[in-house]
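Handoff note, outgoing to incoming analyst
You'll be picking up this chain. Sequence as last confirmed:
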Amino acid sequence: MFKLRSVTGSLVKTVNFRNLISTEPSSLLFTRLVNCKSLNHFSTDSSLSKQPNVSKNKRNKETLFIDSNVQRILQKITGYNEERIFSNKPVSGYKPPKYLFLTDEELEITHKRALEEGKKNLQMPPVMEPWEDKDYILANEPEFSNFDYCNLVITDLSQGFTDRSRLIAVREPNGILRRARWDERYRMNQTYFPVPGRQVTIPKMFEPEHLEPVLNRFDYLFVLDRACIQFEPDDPRYIEIVTKTYDHINANKKFNLLRSTRHFGPMAFHLAFEGKIDALLQDMIKRELLDDAASLIQLYYIINPNEKRKPVDFSAANNIEIIKIYLSTECKERYLVETALRTYQEIMAAREDQPRMSGHG
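Most recent structure output, in case you need it:
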């Protein structure tokens, strides 16, 4: 089953294609308008799937992000704070807590279930390259020129297709039949197969003049969670919004607001990819998270390979040695990180001396 959707400005016309063919005298013309032969070729064309928008000489974010070592590091440094993971969320329909009497065995089973649920809540949004629109012409038929004054969008509503593989084509007023662009696919999919919580029109909060005040209130989780619902992960608008949010967090050093959330890993990946880990590294040292600090440096080295860099054995070197190696070679904010590390070492030394002083007294 196809549906024809005609869109121009605020004008929207939707027509059931089967009914149109059977009831209109110009059914032959409409049949040719959708050009079934071209659409059949289009629906089986494997190139419909989006390809990463990267050159051969450019680092591929998608490939790097799904690397097993990168994923392991990101999951490790995200942390697992149950109070934060299972904290109350501002949602409608409040459900009161349930209190149960459990045996020790039942309590252990319940705790394991909660652990698995917590891990699901920490599943990171994918990091992808932005989609790239290239018009793919299916047919150019001038005889249909000026048939209508707006584009006709043809959408296959058959079951068994994903939003990315679904057949969607556009007949332009000049007679050209082409694949739908990504923003057109986005709107048609949301029209016929709506995602809960997603709007067809972009919410005002994502406009720059409205987004900035939200970020200045440090409502980062609200912005990132809402962006995940509204956009696909390779939507350029999504990438722009989350990048702006990560940079705002980095500038204000509010990293702890994302710890033990699904967004901490992508944020750390972004900072490592852009070579801006120093503020996060300083924060980890201040919080005495030296394992995480060493892992962050390892992540930076994986994402930014350098043939001139001296190899580092992360399994053999201790955390302080790894940080000092980074400090001496690639750190951009050396004074800040060095000061944080020196303060940490002084605190550790004072803690070691305290029991000896107490025993001596």
